[in-house]
Amino acid sequence: MELSALSGGFDNAAHQSATAFRAIMNVMARPGVIETVTGAVPPKGLSVAASSLLLTLCDPETKLHLAGDLDTKTIRDWLTFHTGAPIVPAAQADFAIGAWDDLMPLTQYAIGTDQYPDRSATLIVEMPELAQSGTTLTGPGIKDSVQLSLPALEPFQLNAALFPLGCDFFFTAGDQIAALPRTTKPESTPCM
Amino acid sequence: MSDYNFAYLDEQTKRMIRRAILKGLAIPGYQVPFASREMPMPYGWGTGGVQVTAACLTPDDTLKVIDQGADDTTNAVSIRRFFEKTAAINVTQATSDATVIQTRHRIPEEPLNEDQILVYQVPIPEPLRFLEPRETETRKMHALEEYGLMHVKLFEDISQHGQIATAYAYPVKVEGRYVMDPSPIPRFDNPKMEMAAIQLFGAGREQRIYAIPPYTQVVSLDFDDYPFEASKAEGACALCAADHTYLDEVIVDDDGGRMFVCSDTDYCESRRQAGHIGEQGTPYGKDAA
Amino acid sequence: MYVAVKGGEKAIDAAHDWLADVRRGDPAVAELSLAQIREQMSLAVDRVMSEGSLFDLDLAALAIKQSRGDLIEAIFLIRAYRTTLPRFGASHPVETDSMQCQRRISATFKDVPGGQILGPTFDYTHRLLDFKLAAEGLTPADTPTQDTPDLAAERKPHVMDFLNKDGLIETAEATNDTPPDLTREPLELPANRALRLQNLTRADEGFLLGLAYSTQRGYARNHAFVGELRIGKVAIEMDIPELGFSIEIGEMTVTECETVNQFKGSKSEPPQFTRGYGLVFGQCERKAISMALVDRALRWKELGEDFAGAPAQDEEFVLSHSDNIQATGFLEHIKLPHYVDFQSELELIRSIRTAATAALAETKIAAE
């Protein structure tokens, strides 16, 4: 393990994770809303938002999948040191992180069971940017409707159709974060 | 003894609770099992709500705690003190100043806004529990969306009493899927559950967390010919004259004479400050007893 | 004029002060020291440790002192403290074979290799109040202390193993599976035996005693004999990753009870004896025996027996109601104000009565 793996965590875990969680909870409760999450100083390849989320939610009790380019020794070492989360293949993951294309196909992730729909994977999609435009979202947490720049449409519609089963998503870019739970119904925005 | 962590719980416990809250928000009305910890107050006294609040609080929060609608009830005082001591956060009695409100048995009268979180203390989270005592059975019923038993119970009420005989903890269906126990709030409060704030429910002893995101559909169960009614005592608050709030009945003399006052003490006080005077009230500030 | 009752904060402070006063009692009487409680109330200390799931004699003594001798309150204090402790790791399973027994009896054999040791037991004492104990100032020299035999010397094999040699009793396979941990994961049903045992060892002694007794009286009777009951110290070993080997980090007293139970055989199994198992912190003999009987009753499914509808067989019933901290909390919470709920019930019953009275009056008029 390189020395750099040891730095970049929260300096004040209790306060920083509390503040980060509030933003994380807010975006999950209000799909489409974009908030800022900071605290972690991650190795190259991970965004500030995604790494702060992982530090806030992951520990030895959560299984983590690193998709595609993110599965490097540097990132593994950093996450292992700071969270202790075991790195696993997609099918076993509680959390999976990667670029959208690297995370595919969605069908490989746990969607929960009829009796325990909560036992499903949460995907963290690293995005080049996040914008309040693009796909139109409706559903719980959304007053009327809201727009968010999703990386795709159909996979999210299929996921929503599985409700109450399905995966839940966070989207991260830089220090920004947004979310899309399985209850959100995405539709293409009609052209003006 | 050494100092406790911020908001008492250790970080690993908070992470576990936080993960459960997120899944709860993603599956509105579904009870997420969580490994509730022993807290320094007894089970049944708000340990679920306290754990959820502890997992949500940030150092910048302002906390309000109510029990039966009042900030000054002993258990509300005790929980508020617990967080003052362990999280060094600001506390308030004013609903509008609070960012996190922990409650037992009431929803504040003043509509909550998007920047607020309402945390409910829940004794028995399973709405089907008194119809079927076994968790293994009720879990199957939720999985199969088999809620016939509940409708039979409500229907039997109607045939026996001419109305649905559930006055509090009146079951609701969330987003057309899960039947949920709203905690023992009076059914007067049920319609308020479609709100702008995030609602989180913690049942410590029963090890369950559930949630309702803002603007989520929450429907009180009923029948077309017997629609749900959000009932309350007839009359107005004796202190602030409000006739649209939930009222507590107070016995005032040995002959059983009674009067009604707002259960939401902060709401009542702000009305009195604004100049509303009930039948037995006095102008605000003149009863500093 | 009406002024709403306030003063919750003041009332709480006053109650706490009063509590501190009565806890201390008459200041003219010397205050109890933790050492006195630890040494002279040792069975209370053991019960608090076992149901509190924390082996620490001094903390248990402190909890007993603070709780004015209310053991469930003391157990609660220990549990609440326990949850704040960081978890460094898990020990190896304790080897009760190598226990330094201070007590070891078998009801199924007259004599066993290693011998029976009666130990410090109330059994066979005549339950007569000993007024000599009421005389204060008895110095240790006045109370003869027994020379404790060299207990460590001899390894005492489990009595049950002798039965096992002939295949007369079911084999309890050792596995290296990590048992579930109900202090870290929510209880999920159905539970495996390891999880059930974990629940039972933390369970309220009185609750288990009542359930075990009910099996003896015919509610899922399983004909238990105490194959062996042993009490003594066992070593706690733990792997230390930094060292690369395991070391003994301490020792603790436990009570272990293995019962031999009748089994008629089933479609798949020929008749043989079956087992019930109890293991608890400290010297908690009644609890360990009760635990073994309830464990055996809960095993009906895996042994192919019928469900007789007895409470002790009902896993969900037993496991959901065994914890006295959960039970006492919920029971006592009905002391909290419920006037909002009660108000809604009042309104409801008034409304139903009004309707019913009107209906009655109508029928009466119609009849006239």
Care to give the gist of this entry?
Chain B is an alpha/beta fold.
Protein traits:
heterotrimer, A: 192 residues, alpha/beta, Rossmann fold, 6-stranded mixed beta sheet, 3-stranded antiparallel beta sheet, 5 helices, 26% helix, globular, B: 289 residues, 2 domains, 7-stranded mixed beta sheet, 6 helices, 12 strands, 17% strand
How would you explain this protein's 3D organization?
The complex is a heterotrimer of chains A (192), B (289) and C (368). Chain A has a single domain, classed as Bacterial phosphonate metabolism protein PhnH (Rossmann fold), CATH 3.40.50. Helices cover 26% and strands 19% of the residues of chain A. Chain A has helices spanning 13-29, 48-57, 73-83, 100-103, 154-161, and strands at 35-36, 64-66, 95-99, 122-126, 135-138, 146-148, 168-173, 176-180, 185-187. Chain A has a six-stranded mixed β-sheet with strand order 1-8-7-4-3-2. A three-stranded antiparallel β-sheet of chain A has the order 6-5-9. In chain A, a hairpin with a 7-residue loop joins strand 5 and strand 6 (146-148). The longest helix of chain A is centred in the first third of the chain and has 17 residues, at 13-29. The radius of gyration of chain A is 16 Å and the shape is globular. Chain B is an alpha/beta fold and 289 residues long. Chain B folds into two domains: 11-134 and 168-220, Bacterial phosphonate metabolism protein PhnH (Rossmann fold); 232-280, no CATH class. Chain B contains six helices and twelve strands. In chain B, the strands form three sheets. Chain B has a seven-stranded mixed β-sheet with strand order 1-9-8-5-4-2-3. Chain B has a three-stranded antiparallel β-sheet with strand order 7-6-10, with no helix packed on it. In chain B, helix 1 packs across helix 2. The longest helix of chain B is centred in the first third of the chain and has 16 residues, at 11-26. Chain B starts with 10 loop residues before the first helix and ends in a 16-residue tail after the last helix. Chain C is of the alpha+beta class and 368 residues long. Chain C folds into two domains: 15-82; 96-120 and 150-173 and 183-328, no CATH class. A four-stranded antiparallel β-sheet of chain C has the order 1-2-3-4. Chain C is globular. In chain C, 30% of the residues are buried. At the B-C interface, helix 3 and strand 11 of B face helix 1, helix 5, helix 11 and helix 12 of C.
